[in-house]
Amino acid sequence: MTQHMVPEVTLDKILQPIEKASGLPNQAYVSEHFFAHERDQVLGKSWAGLWFASDLPKKGYVKPVEFMGLPLLILRNKHDEIKVFHNVCSHRGMILVHEEMTVQGALRCKYHSWSYSLDGELKGTPHLGGIGEQKADGFNHCEHGLKPVRSAVWMDVIFINLSGDAPAFADYIEPLTEKWQAFLGTGGLDSTRAAVNGKGLQIEVKSNWKLAVENYCESYHLPWIHPGLNTYSRLEDHYHIMYGDNFAGQGSYAYRLSDEVGTALPRFAEWPADKLAQAEYVAFYPNVLLGIQADHVFALIVEPKSSACSMEHLRLYYVGDEALDDRHAASRNATLESWRVVFAEDVDAVEGMQNGRHSPGYGGGVFSPVMDNPTHHFHQWVARKLKAG
User: Fold this and answer.
1) Which of 219, 216, 297, 299 is nearest to 253 (CA)?
2) Which has the least CB within 10 A, 11, 89, 259, 377?
3) Does this model's pTM top 0.85?
């Protein structure tokens, strides 16, 4: 058995009912070999969050990104479609795009000047067949375009499926959208608008990406890690969420809406009046954390940087064009600041768990059969991915 693999007997133990189950072992959090393995077998076999579509504001905009060591390219083509490709020239593997920019014509490799359309098609191959010859016998340009990555966009998040064989995105997301229709109505998230107060939050966390997801899933830590939040949205005000196989989290019956007279943020038109103080916080496996409230939603992408380092990218979205008016600026800023405090409070806890994963005295831990159901749900999801791989 190779170093990065989790023993079958350990996976079977994780897949036990919660009162008998253990959690993922230390190596799943501290091993770079395991980190590389799970890129292909866990995140790569799923719909992983990559970036935000609103960061590509116009046609022709391109943005290079990395995903767990893979150089990728996001672009908005001339048809206003978001596409993702491997960011390498098909000729000699040179990185194609080095910085985000707007492309007027074609993407051009600076090594030998091979060029590609914004749909990834190979267009220009100077001197391919000799000086002044763009073509060569037996060379088919159609076979050597940029290599696409299967992608989808939902709630402004660009999702990718590296393996190309995950279920259709519409099927993957359906359990969540069906449940949230009770809050959002038939219009869903169509009325949301990206925030105008900067680019949200970027938080570096010295921990494995999975610990950020596990922490988000549960409210058990609320009284001790979030004392301010706990004064009005208490532990007893929360409930567990497990939607289908790919979503888990927590809900609250005591969300505090912005209520400044005359400047309260607009709310979803079909949000039920008797649920205005209800909110849900759901982890979209593997690495996207979502929150919906009557007056805004948010998406947080946990970017895995290494086995012991992650970047959290948070964006807020408000309801309708009116929400972006200057008269709502104070409410928007207060909302962003409230989430800044909450997510900052989690950092010490998550980093403390990461440090604890180096201890031989810890072997995966156990779960409260009452309080830890969402976290156990996530561990089982990871274990099933590893077992299938």
Assistant:
1) 219
2) 259
3) yes
